[in-house]
Design goal:
two-stranded antiparallel ribbon, 51% helix, 6 helices, single chain, 147 residues, mainly alpha, 12% strand
């Protein structure tokens, strides 16, 4: 192929289809839409907020996805998860599945999101167990007047 745009028209149909599929796969990768992609583009915005709310609400407690959904909707974490349920038409089961997929993606990314990361502790009682960790350990409060 010489690189002329009309060369695409001269290409056999099977080769054009393969090229189109490859280009579409690259476009999905750039958008963060591939199934194997660790973190989707929309989750890049959600992750820091979600993980910070998780840390503030539950600290380093190891939890399953179902436990996260038990958090009061009056808290920041509960409100974020309620939004996820709403996005999925009120289907709580689907929201739990989706959150589990998101957490798996966050972990596979092997990086922090807003100073926090999520790590799988493996299955416990048939469910995956997760922990949220700050990258920098929280500093203990200093005593007033000390120093």
């Amino acid at each position: 192929m010489s690189g002329h745009p009309l060369d695409l028209l001269r290409m056999p149909a099977r080769e054009r289809e393969a090229l189109a599929a490859s280009l579409e796969a690259v476009a999905r990768l750039l958008r963060g839409d591939l199934p194997g992609s660790a973190v989707k583009a929309d989750d890049e915005l959600l992750a820091p907020e979600l993980l910070r709310a998780w840390w503030l609400e539950l600290g380093s407690e190891a939890v399953g996805v179902a436990k996260l959904f038990e958090v009061s909707p009056q808290t920041k974490l509960g409100a974020l998860l309620a939004d996820l349920v709403d996005e999925l038409g009120g289907d709580v089961h689907q929201a739990k599945t989706r959150l589990g997929q998101k957490l798996r993606g966050f972990e596979r990314a092997r990086r922090d999101f807003g100073g926090y990361r999520v790590r799988s502790l493996g299955p416990y009682c048939g469910s995956q167990t997760w922990v949220c960790e700050p990258i920098e350990p929280p500093q203990p409060p200093t005593a007033a007047g000390a120093g």
